[in-house]
Specification:
Blueprint lengths: L5 H7 L3 H32 L5 H8 L12 H5 L3 H25 L4 H7 L1 H13 L4
Length: 134
């Protein structure tokens, strides 16, 4: 809603280099949010029994949870504060989804999870050991 509403007005007021950064970052933001939404919809389908775990695992290959590209600090600083906040929040949610994806679909690789949070790694191992749904 921000990008179609107030963001559009803010973008028109930006200098040329900042407007280009705005266009680039807003495209990255919407792509990231669509990836997250697609992944979450797959998980909901599994939880509601519409898909099996194996079906979701197959479908998940179509959802690219790619790592986000870091932006130039100078470009980010030229963006409106509200867009900067949305980008930062979306990156945080994206990182959380990546960790959940790792825990759910690749529980045998705790070393990657442990690097992010050792407690999370142990919780993932416990879930994998006692999860009877799979």
């Amino acid at each position: 809603a921000y990008l179609d509403g107030p963001g559009r007005g803010e973008a028109k007021a930006l200098p040329r280099h900042a407007a280009l950064a705005y266009a680039t970052e807003s495209m990255r933001l919407t792509t990231r949010l669509m990836q997250i939404a697609s992944w979450l919809l797959l998980q909901r389908a599994v939880n509601e029994g519409e898909l099996t775990f194996d079906q979701a695992k197959t479908e998940k290959t179509k959802v690219k949870l790619s790592t986000w590209e870091s932006s130039h600090e100078e470009s980010m600083a030229s963006l409106p504060k509200r867009l900067q906040d949305l980008i930062e929040t979306s990156r945080s949610v994206h990182e959380q989804v990546l960790r959940l994806d790792q825990l759910i679909y690749n529980p045998q690789a705790p070393d990657k999870i442990a690097a992010a949070n050792p407690v999370e790694a142990q919780m993932g191992l416990l879930r994998a050991a006692f999860d009877t749904k799979r």
